[in-house]
Specification:
Helices cover about 35% and strands about 20% of the residues. With about 200 residues, the protein is an alpha/beta fold. A hairpin with a 6-residue loop joins β4 and β5.
C-alpha cells in the first residue's frame, strides 16, 4: 500500500508555504499560465535553467472541486521533450509532498526544513514533469463540498483527472501535441490504467 497521510504531510506543508510566498510577486502578470509561474522559492540558494509553475485547476464548478499541480519544464530543450504526468495516489499521499519533494522532483528539502537543494537525478532531466495531487482531499487538492471527501472513488478520480488534464492543456497549449506518458507508484499505479482508458475514450 501507499504512504500514509502523515508520511506525506510535512514535505507538502513546507512546499506549499514556500509556494505561497513565491507566488506573491506574480499577481500582476496577465495570462493564467504566467500567473502560475514560480520565480524563486524561499530557501532556494541557487538558480535553475528551467521554468516551473504551480496552481489549481477546477474540475467541478458546482461542488468546487479543484486539483493542485506543480509542473517542471525539462532542464534542457523542453520543446523536444515529452510530457509526463506523475501520480502518487496513495489513495492519501500527495504527489507534491512525496513524489516531488522526496523522490523524482528537482527540489528536495534539507533536514533543517527550510533549505532546498537540487536533485541531480530529477526526472525533468529527460522530460517535462507534471505532478498532480489527486483525488480531492489529497495534498492541497480540495472540494468546497465536504461530502466529496467521503465519496471519492476510482471512477470519479479518473474523470476528475481527465478534466484536469484537458483544462491544464488549454492553459499550456504547446503541450497538446507532445508525446504523453503517465507514471506513478503505489495506488497511483491503480489510477494510471483508469485515467489512460478515460483519455482513450475521450479521443475516440
Amino acid at each position: 500500500m501507499g504512504k500514509t497521510r502523515a508520511t506525506c504531510f510535512l514535505p507538502a506543508l513546507i512546499f506549499f508555504t514556500l509556494l505561497a510566498n513565491a507566488h506573491l510577486g506574480n499577481c500582476a502578470l496577465s495570462s493564467r499560465q504566467e500567473q502560475d509561474r514560480v520565480s524563486k522559492l524561499p530557501g532556494q540558494g541557487f538558480n535553475v535553467s528551467f521554468a516551473h509553475y504551480s496552481g489549481y485547476v477546477t474540475v467541478h464548478e458546482k461542488s468546487g472541486r479543484a486539483l493542485f499541480y506543480w509542473f517542471f519544464e525539462a532542464v534542457e530543450d523542453p520543446d523536444s521533450k515529452p510530457l509526463l504526468l506523475w501520480l502518487n495516489g496513495g489513495p492519501g499521499c500527495s504527489s507534491i509532498g512525496y513524489g516531488l519533494a522526496e523522490e523524482i522532483g528537482p527540489f528536495h528539502i534539507k533536514p533543517d526544513g527550510k533549505t532546498l537543494y537540487l536533485n541531480p537525478y530529477s526526472w525533468n532531466q529527460v522530460a517535462n514533469v507534471l505532478f498532480l495531487d489527486m483525488p480531492v482531499g489529497v495534498g492541497f487538492s480540495y472540494s468546497n463540498t465536504s461530502s466529496d471527501l467521503l465519496t471519492n472513488g476510482d471512477k470519479r478520480t479518473a474523470q476528475d483527472s481527465l478534466k484536469f488534464l484537458l483544462k491544464w492543456l488549454d492553459r499550456f497549449p504547446k503541450y497538446k501535441e507532445r508525446d504523453f506518458y503517465i507514471a506513478g507508484e503505489s495506488y497511483g499505479g491503480h489510477y494510471i490504467p483508469q485515467l489512460s482508458q478515460a483519455v482513450v475514450r475521450h479521443n475516440q
